[in-house]
Design goal:
It contains one helix and no strands. By secondary structure, the protein is mainly α.
Length: 66
């Protein structure tokens, strides 16, 4: 009886290790997806903070010359 329980526990331990590895892969995938999404979204916004004032200044200067 105890041998059967030990075999079942070993099988469950093996399955738990597989689940853990799969979960860690999924977690890393989501983490990198989040990082890439943030970079793709916020990097252009930061660029606009520097480019937009220059563009507005140039546009207003061009309109002032009319």
């Amino acid at each position: 009886m105890e041998e059967e329980i030990k075999i079942r526990l070993d099988a469950q331990d093996e399955l738990l290790n597989k689940i853990y590895k799969s979960t860690e892969k999924t977690r890393k995938y989501f983490m990198w997806t989040l990082i890439i999404t943030l970079v793709v979204f916020f990097l252009p916004l930061v660029g606009l903070l520097f480019i937009l004032p220059n563009f507005i200044n140039t546009y207003i200067s061009a309109l002032g010359g009319l």
